[in-house]
Design brief:
seven-stranded mixed beta sheet
Length: 226
Amino acid sequence: MKVSYHGHSCVRVETDSHKILIDPFITGNELCDLDPDTVEADVIILTHGHGDHVGDTMKIADRTGAFIVALNELAVYLGQKGYNAHGMNIGGAYDFEFGRVKYTQAFHSSSYEEEDGTFIYTGMPGGLLLTINGKTVYHLGDTALFSDLKLIGDMNNIDLAFVPIGDNFTMGPEDALIASEWINADIVVPVHYNTFPVIKQDGQAFAEKVKPGRGVALKVGESLEL
């Protein structure tokens, strides 16, 4: 499968049969190279309800009919708006046609802001393990450092991990290096940085500090083959 990075925490996974978007924050994300009016998606997977992760989910689903996977309260909210959404919760896994999704803990917050400023509770935030054809991608979502990341690393053979490094809203580079050691992925890619001034970081400097040969700072639009 082909896995590409599109700024902030937006990741695209392409297989022979499916096009999958994770956290499609496009509009308002000057770093993103995608267009919500043309991007293709069969599936959208969300880590939590914040606007910089839900992003253009509804706009894309309106056009493509994409199937949405999300934490339960967020899935219910989207379902009430007429979208085809499958709700899950922390620790749960499910085998879909496109692959297996398992949600993990993430220490953060999760709510969705309506146009009138009302905040909607969208359940627990999460990370997610996406396994397709024996390859596992771990998107940590937005999270602080927590010790069970080591347990997740011990329990799973992770081929590729997307780790937030921006600080302020998530763990910063120093904590992200510890997380990278614990999850022990073959490849570690920094995400959730440089989108806003308060999360300005040097992704390349971070990647060079990850265990030799494992850190890769993908530029927007770049991809890896698994």
